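W.,

You were right to be curious about this one. When I first looked at the sequence I had no strong expectations either way, so I just let the prediction run and decided to look at it fresh. Below is the sequence, 103 residues in total, followed by the output.
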Amino acid sequence: MAGIMANSASSTMVSGDTTADNTATGYLTRESIVLSVTGGSTFSWGLSKPSASGSVTGLSSATSASPTFAPDVDGYYVVTCLVDGTTTYVLRLGVADISPVGT
């Protein structure tokens, strides 16, 4: 299956298609996220952030096979990747600052 995969230390989210409203159940925590896409040799990544996000939050590279970013606020981030200039994949990531509860 083609699509974007987003991995953080605590969770993984995967897009399975190219539709703009792709969502997954659950959230990634606010920590460094590594992105990857299946197949292809050239990549053009994009990132839409919540309006409260600071200007420093962005992708480590717009053209690498596996860029990273670190969300700075809770909300939805939309990642896009144009692969080989022909196919665009979209993944909508829900990000929340989830901390373990102490006992």
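Here's what jumped out at me. The longest strand covers residues 87-96. And, maybe more interesting for your project: Residues 60 and 67 are 5 Å apart (CA to CA).

Coffee later to discuss?

I.
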